[in-house]
Write a structure and sequence with these properties.
With 250 residues, this protein is mostly beta strands. The protein has two domains: 134 residues, 5 Propeller (Tachylectin-2, Chain A); 99 residues, no CATH class. Strand 5 and strand 6 form a beta hairpin.
């Protein structure tokens, strides 16, 4: 298997952009299987937003194959509180305890940036967004984003990014949640992942299950001293272990 990006065929997963989105700003896709279909949630900027500081909305697209092509819904799933203050960084969590699925997102314009939206069996919202985690700790600066949840055997662990994505102080926290819709409490001890050695600004963490059933975590980080420089952000994949107290890398 090649690891050279230039040697991998590039296929446009969503050839037709939704009419509500700007054509140049679509990112943060996440794909989950619902029945016989694959549903992709993604973030995109909208033209002429009511709040220019929060342009983003979360959209939904469907395909019969995980690689696409995906056909986007004509309207976004959510544009944040009141449809005004923006929404981004979608993440699907399926609760093994109940079989129910939830869409976790980041909302702008609020001191409670992370929210949970229950989904139907075909990945449509089935109720109002519920606040999941607010900014509670001194190290949580600027904004919370990139939610990713797992069941830890007792309750639920939520990983999230805090700070400005383009700076070395960007970091990853973990919170303990009673249910997939909260309430959640973050750790006052500080971020779970922060700048260390040659890597700074670790964030965008997502949990996934490997073929052998083991828990994995993938996140990005900058080369220290080259924050926000093109080509300076790299991907890291690690085995992880979660229990009721914390998440560790064995």
């Amino acid at each position: 298997m090649t690891t050279d990006p230039a040697a991998v065929p590039r296929i446009e997963a969503m050839p037709e952009r939704p009419p509500w989105a700007r054509q140049d700003d679509i990112w943060a896709p996440t794909v989950a299987r619902f029945g016989n279909e694959y549903v992709m949630f993604f973030a995109a900027k909208r033209p002429n937003p009511p709040d220019p500081a929060n342009e983003e909305c979360v959209g939904r697209a469907v395909s019969g194959h995980p690689g696409g092509p995906y056909v986007a819904d004509p309207t976004p799933v959510t544009c944040g509180l009141g449809g005004v203050h923006g929404a981004l960084d979608p993440s699907v969590f399926r609760d093994r305890q109940t079989g129910r699925a939830f869409l976790h997102v980041a909302f702008g314009g609020t001191s409670t940036p992370l929210w949970s939206i229950p989904l139907t069996g075909d990945a449509h919202p089935s109720g109002a967004a519920v606040p999941l985690l607010k900014m509670q700790q001194r190290w949580e600066t600027w904004f919370l984003e990139n939610p990713s949840m797992i069941f830890n055997g007792v309750d639920y662990t939520l990983a999230y990014s805090a700070g400005r994505w383009s700076q070395g102080t960007y970091s990853t926290g973990v919170a303990r949640c009673r249910t997939p819709v909260g309430p959640c409490a973050s750790s006052p001890a500080g971020p779970w992942l922060a700048a260390v050695g040659a890597v700074s600004g670790p964030g965008g963490l997502d949990f996934f299950t490997a073929i052998d059933g083991s828990l994995m975590a993938v996140h990005h980080g900058y080369e220290a001293g080259r924050e926000a420089a093109f080509g300076a952000r790299h991907t890291f994949i690690r085995r992880a272990h979660a229990d009721a107290d914390t998440v560790t890398f064995p």
